[in-house]
Specification:
Length: about 80
C-alpha cells in the first residue's frame, strides 16, 4: 500500500499510469512502492507539485510553512 503523499502525487499527476510514464517507470513500479524512491523524489515533486518534504520527510525533513507546506490531507480534500 502506498503512502498518502505518493497517492496524492499520483492523483495530481493524472493517475498512477501517468506519473509512472512521466518519471520513466512502469505503473507496477508505482503500485509496488510504499513511498517514492529517493532517486525519484525531485522528479515526482516537479511533476505533481507535491513537496519533497511531504514525499520523503525522512530525507528532506518535515515540511513547514516556510517551505510552502500544505497539509497532504488538506490537499486531498481540496482545501
Amino acid at each position: 500500500m502506498i503512502d498518502d503523499a505518493l497517492q496524492l502525487a499520483c492523483e495530481k499527476a493524472g493517475g498512477r499510469k501517468a506519473l509512472a510514464a512521466a518519471i520513466g517507470v512502469t505503473r507496477q513500479a508505482i503500485e509496488q512502492s510504499r513511498r517514492v524512491p529517493a532517486e525519484r523524489v525531485l522528479d515526482v515533486e516537479r511533476i505533481s507539485k507535491v513537496s519533497r518534504h511531504d514525499l520523503r520527510p525522512d530525507i528532506y525533513g518535515a515540511s513547514s510553512l516556510v517551505c510552502g507546506h500544505v497539509d497532504v490531507a488538506s490537499q486531498r480534500a481540496g482545501i
